[in-house]
Amino acid sequence: MRYKKCLPTLNSTRHAGDVVRAWGSVQSVMRLAVVSVMLLGLMLVVPDATRASDSEPGNLKLIELYTSHGCSSCPAADKLLGELIAADDQLMALEFHVDYWNTLVHGSDGNFVDPFSKPEFSLRQREYNAASLAGRPGVYTPQAVVNGRFAAVGSNRRHITKALDREVVQTLMIGVSADNDPDRLLVTVTGSSEQIGSLAGTDIKVAHFISKAVTDITGGENSRKTVTNHNIVTSMTTLGEVSGEAGMTFSIVRPAGNEGCVIMVQEDALTPVFAAVACPQS
Fold first, then answer.
1. To 5 degrees, how large is the angle CA 255–CA 260–CA 266?
2. How far is CA 212 from CA 81, 129, 190, 269, 276, in A?
3. Helix axes 74-87 and 157-164, enclosed angle (nearest 10)
4. Which of 14, 51, 80, 269 has its CA 20 to 30 A from that of 263?
5. End-to-end CA distance of the chain
6. Which of 179, 190, 227, 197 is CA-nearest to residue 79?
7. 144 in Cβ contact with 164 (< 8 Å)
C-alpha cells in the first residue's frame, strides 16, 4: 500500500500451614511467628502504586502529529490519531498544526488559513528534521514523530504502531498532582544524581492542547470538508531546566474540561524526548 505525503516547495506465597509440622505446640508457634514476620516484610517493600499521574521507566509512548487543514492527505492521519488515542489510554498524543500551508492556493478554492496553526510549530518540525530522526524524516505533512526518535508518514498505521511498540526507558520521573490551588497542578521532576547530571540544562516543557475540535474547511485542498482533530496543541512553554542545585517543582494551570496537557523533558526538538507524562483529567 502506498502512502501519500504532502510536500510544500506485571508468586504466589506459601501458606503458613504448609510449613507448620506436628513437632509440638512451641515449635509451631515459633514457625508461625517467623512466617508472619516474613510476610510483613514483603508487604512493607511493595511499591506505592497509587501515583497514576507519574511517568514510569520503560513506559514512554508519545506521538506527535504534524498536520494542516490545507493538506489533502492530512484528514486520514487526523482520523488515525483519534483511533490510536481511543485504543490506548497510555498513549500520549499531541497534534501540531503547521503554518506553511496557509498561503498555498489550490485553484479556484484558493487557500485556507488553519486556525490552529502557528509558526513555532513549523519551526519545531524543522528542528526535528535537523536532528536526523530515524525512519522518514523531513518537513512534510502528515508526519508522525514517536518519542522524538522516529518519523513516519502520519497515516501509516503499521510504521507508527511498530515505533510505539519499541520500549523506551524514561531517564527521569515526572509527577503531576493536585496543588493547594484547585485551579492549578503541581509538577515534580526527580531522578538519580547521575540521571540529573546527564541532562543538566535540558528544558522541562508543558504542551497545552484542546482535546477535540471539528472544523468546516472553506478553502484549499480540503475545501467543503469537515475535519475532526484531537489533542490540538495551542501552546508549548518552558517551565524550567533540569538542575541538581534547584528544586524541580513547578505550578501550572489545570486544564479545563475539553483541554489537557503533557509535560516533557526535551531540548527543543533537537533531542529525543527523555521523559513525559500526561496531566490528569479534570
1. 110
2. 11, 27, 32, 24, 21
3. 40
4. 80
5. 41
6. 227
7. no
pLDDT tens-digit series, residues 29-80 = 333 333 333 333 322 233 333 334 666 555 799 999 999 999 999 999 999 9
DSSP string spanning 87-145? H-TT-EEEEEEPSTTTT---GGG-----TT--HHHHHHHHHHHHTT-EES-SS-BSEEE
Backbone angles phi, psi at 141, to 5 degrees: -130, 145
| CA–CA distance, 36 with 32 (Å, rounded to integer) | 6
| Cell representation of residue 269 | 526538538
**Cα dist. 266→201, 231, 269, 276 in Å?**
10, 19, 7, 9
Q: In this structure, are residues 272 and 129 in contact, taking their beta carbons and an 8 Å threshold?
A: no
Q: DSSP H helical segments within 131-223, as ranges?
A: 157-164, 193-198
- Nearest CA among 215, 233, 236, 216 for reference residue 224: 216
Dump pLDDT digits (tens) for 79-137: 999 999 999 999 999 999 999 999 999 999 999 999 999 999 999 999 999 999 999 99
Please give the grid coordinates belonging to residue 18. 504448609
